[in-house]
Amino acid sequence: MNNGLTPFKKILKKSGYKFTASRRTILEVILDSKTHLNVKEIYEKVKEKHIGSATVYRTLKVFNELGIVKEINVNGISYYEMKIFSKKPLHMHFKCFNCNSIIDIDSESLNFEYLRLNKKVEAENDLEIYDLNIMFIGLCSKCREGLKCQDQQNLEE
Q: Which one of 9, 38, 39, 135 has the lowest number of neighbouring Cβ atoms within 10 Å?
């Protein structure tokens, strides 16, 4: 077994789940991905190993409940990314409302602002915050450029 997967095996075992070959394969797909994946995309990557879509759904539900992955819902579609042991543990997301792409916003200065805001909200409201989902919504640069080109064509006609 890949030693990098040992912490996940321990989390599952501690919670009463087995670290099956299917769970391992699904976890490896998410770990290896550089983008946010939805269930259909994960299924497409694991179906050759005879893993059904129902297994993918159930596994992602377990991983999400245990805090292994983070579910990001965009227009009724759930996308998944690593939550624990992530290379980017603190980041925000941007969703383009034209092409529906999800982009990680990973900025050191914004992360410091987030931490400052987090402490302020905790102090002013006597809270202890464990997680936060920030999703900016707008037009990505490709779509914005495409709309500029379309507007330019309309002006020329």
A: 135
**Better-scored residue on pLDDT, 154 or 120:** 120
pLDDT tops 80 at residue 156:
no
pLDDT in the model for residue 151 = 52
Distance CA 18, CA 43 (A): 20
Residues 29 and 98 placed together within one structural domain of the fold: no
| 74 and 51 fall within a common domain | yes
Backbone angles phi, psi at 33, to 5 degrees: -80, 140
Q: Which of 61, 84, 93 is nearest to 130 (CA)?
A: 84
Are 19 and 13 contacting, i.e. CB atoms less than 8 angstroms apart?
yes
The residues facing 72 across adjacent strands are 79
pLDDT tens digits, one per residue of 48-62? 999 999 999 999 999
